[in-house]
Input
Amino acid sequence: MVQRKIFPASAGYNVAVASERMQDGRWSAVATVTHSTGTGQRVIDLPVTDERFDTEEAAERSVVKMAMEWIERNTPPEERGEPAKVA
Output
């Protein structure tokens, strides 16, 4: 059975996580990043890994960390509340 959870992030982003117990008893998870603005919503499916974890919590933590790192790399500084960098 697939479990789905939503984790709030910053600057209008959320991380949706789907975790599943595999046949060998270990856990896998995938993450989708959503970014809502006043005019729409962008959905980014992050790469699926073949990593397996002993617990559902560990699987979720791994993909939430991956998603938060993606958000950090891809959010403009001004959306994070930081001053824009001038060249």
In short: Helices lie at 56-74.
